[in-house]
Design brief:
- The strands form 2 sheets. The protein has a 6-stranded mixed beta sheet with strand order 6-7-8-3-9-10, with helices on both faces. It has a 4-stranded antiparallel beta sheet with strand order 2-1-4-5, with helices on one face.
- It is α/β, with parallel strands linked by helices and about 240 residues long.
- The chain is globular, with a radius of gyration of 18 Å.
- A hairpin with a 2-residue loop joins β4 and β5.
- The protein has 2 domains: about 140 residues, 3-Layer(aba) Sandwich (Rossmann fold), CATH 3.40.50.300; about 80 residues, no CATH class.
- The structure holds adenosine-5'-diphosphate and magnesium ion (MG).
- Magnesium ion binds next to α1.
Length: about 240
């Protein structure tokens, strides 16, 4: 589902973390958002998902303006986000965690978690999502016993379980070993076209291999949007971010 931002601005006191950001993610596109630490990537994602509101500007999902919509209604409108910092329940097993994400999208899904854990309507979609991220064999393992890379795979399963067409993924490879992030990038490649994806990622090899287009954010401003080749060729981007090598 197409996502478009127009002139989005947000400040924290005197700090302007998002300045007049225009950004369009076309339906089925994998669009990467890159930029140095503190550039405002996570803050921008939060404004799209509804944890934060912009001070001004407009955010449109499909044909719906969602700028002032609360986060739970945006989720129902078709957005799912992953967080840079893990939000997993360590004492539950992998399948329980995904079942909770499934529950969040079901009508009347605010029942007691104690009941939800044994609800078969949650079990099947939860197992399905675990299978899609390669964790089928780890369904019964407590989160606290999963490897770091498996936890990030689990978070992706929870995003997929929400069955939203548009995904906001904030550094899904953070802290992963080379092997784990290779597996994760193959996973993301398998989602291409079936989802509209905005991906925040630091590893440029991964970004350049996965993304259809890339937007470069520096000090809250989107300074450039283009294909991987166009981004590589752009001198301003090289100076601001990629290094001039
Ligand atoms: N709630 C907040 N209050 C004040 N400043 C914040 C808040 N959240 C983020 N910031 C600041 O906004 C800037 C952008 O942060 P962030 O969006 O996390 O950057 P990135 O994800 O690109 O590393 C940083 O300078 C950060 O310190
Ligand atoms: Mg961030």
């Amino acid at each position: 589902m197409r996502l478009a931002l127009r002139k989005v601005c947000r400040s924290f006191g005197a700090l302007r973390v998002t300045q007049d950001v225009d950004l369009a993610v076309e339906t089925g596109e994998l669009h990467a958002l890159i930029g140095p630490n503190g550039a405002g990537k996570t803050t921008l994602i939060s404004q799209i998902s509804g944890e934060l509101f912009p001070d001004s500007g407009e955010i449109v999902l499909g044909d719906q303006a969602i700028t002032r919509m609360p986060a739970h209604r945006r989720a129902a409108a078709g957005l799912a986000r992953s967080f840079q910092i893990s939000q997993l329940y360590a004492d539950f097993d992998a399948e329980d965690n995904v079942a909770m994400a499934v529950q969040a999208r079901l009508p009347g899904g605010f029942g007691m978690w104690r009941d939800a854990r044994s609800d078969p309507r949650l079990r099947e979609p939860a197992r399905d999502a675990l299978g899609r991220v390669g964790l089928a064999q780890r369904a019964g393992v407590r989160v606290s016993e999963l490897a770091h890379g498996e936890k990030r795979q689990l978070e992706l399963a929870m995003v997929l379980a929400r069955e939203a067409p548009t995904l906001l993924l904030d550094e899904p490879m953070a802290g992963m070993s080379a092997e784990e992030s290779h597996r994760m990038s193959q996973l993301l490649a398998s989602l291409k076209r079936r989802y509209t994806i905005l991906l925040v990622e630091h590893d440029m090899d991964i970004v350049f291999s996965l993304a259809d287009r890339i937007t470069v954010l520096v000090y809250g401003r989107a300074i450039f949007t283009g294909t991987p080749q166009e981004v590589r060729a752009n001198a301003e981007v090289r100076n601001a971010y990629l290094g001039s090598d």
